[in-house]
Amino acid sequence: MYTKRETRFVPVRSPSSPSEHLVWHCACVCPSACAEEPDCGPAGGCGRPVVPGEVGGELGGERCAAARGGALLTSPSGPGYHIMLPFITTYRSVQTTLQTDEVKNVPCGTSGGVMIYIDRIEVVNMLAPFAVFDIVRNYTADYDKTLIFNKIHHELNQFCSAHTLQEVYIELFDQIDENLKQALQKDLNIMAPGLTIQAVRVTKPKIPEAIRRNFELMEAEKTKLLIAAQKQKVVEKEAETERKKAIIEAEKTAQVAKIRFQQKVMEKETEKRISEIEDAAFLAREKARADAEYYTAHKHATSNKLKLTPEYLELKKYQAIAANSKIYFGSSIPSIFMDSSCAFKYPDARTGREISLLSKEAPEPSEKSPMGNKASTG
């Protein structure tokens, strides 16, 4: 089924009376600027008055292709008043602005043998004014049936036969309109220069009900798969976020621990330096004290060496003896005993009890002994 939109074909009306010959067949009115024909006279056409008649085109958007005696005139009439001869001159209005042609219910067989139908294909095209004569002469005023409608069937079947149902219905559906446009324009550039395809719009194909349900189920499964994939991505993103968060927390903890460790190390190093300083100060003090004591002892030793002469020691000895309150003499007493009040004590000194015990056991001293006589000093 073919439908021509936005184009009005003005038929040549048959006159009902002889007086209507001038009304319906002597004027083709295009309400715009006047375009004269070569055979028009000074009065506007063949020496006869111009009588308003049938409207033959829209405002500047059509050309009137006229035929005289069956021969197409070489100059299509533009908008304006024109004269034609009754019964001899006929005309057709040809639109030269954008128009949309529709092709409905186009069958299409895929490479798998499935027959599908495309409900409607719209072809937006425009005919250039300079190409009206050639195209109407070669393809008549219904040129779009030959150049567009029939070519749509051919090109669409060529496309469908080379692709599967999956490709035609889903995968390559968005490319059908562009492929049809390019194929049509390629042929029109050779067959009908001046006819331009502006756009092609294709509706979704109609497929068998069983196959359609399968496609719907397949699309539902694909949707579920996409949802599952999106959920998986969300879970992965959440896990990645948690992992990054844990890494950030661990890095934060590690950095805090590192800072605290460095702080403790610095504190210990400070304490170590303080201890070293204190030890050095203490060592210096002790060394100074030891040096002072050594110097003092050395000086005392030197002075004692000079002071403790045999004569001085002898003097001290007698002074110590003289300081005792009692002195015991005897043959068995190896040395002088001095009590606790003496300044010096000798290793061979005896206590009073020991001396009394020794005096009881000791024999009488001989007369030759220097200490034969026991004497006591008060």
UniProtKB/TrEMBL annotation:
The entry's family comment says: Belongs to the band 7/mec-2 family.
PANTHER family, per database record: ERLIN (ER LIPID RAFT ASSOCIATED PROTEIN) HOMOLOG, ERLIN-1
Q: Which InterPro entries match?
A: Band_7, Band_7/SPFH_dom_sf, Erlin1/2
- Identify the stretch(es) annotated as Disordered: 356-378
CDD domains reported for this sequence? SPFH_like_u3 (cd03406)
- What does this chain do? Mediates the endoplasmic reticulum-associated degradation (ERAD) of inositol 1,4,5-trisphosphate receptors (IP3Rs). Involved in regulation of cellular cholesterol homeostasis by regulation the SREBP signaling pathway.
- What GO molecular function annotations does the UniProt record carry, in alphabetical order? cholesterol binding; ubiquitin protein ligase binding
Topology in membrane: Single-pass type II membrane protein
Q: What is its main location?
A: endoplasmic reticulum
Give the protein's recorded name. Erlin
Q: Which GO terms describe its cellular component?
A: endoplasmic reticulum membrane; protein-containing complex
Q: Which residues form the Band domain?
A: 46-219
Q: Subcellular location, in the record's words?
A: Endoplasmic reticulum membrane
Which gene name does the record give? ERLIN1
Which keywords fit this entry according to its UniProt record?
A: Cholesterol metabolism, Endoplasmic reticulum, Glycoprotein, Lipid metabolism, Lipid-binding, Membrane, Signal-anchor, Steroid metabolism, Sterol metabolism, Transmembrane, Transmembrane helix
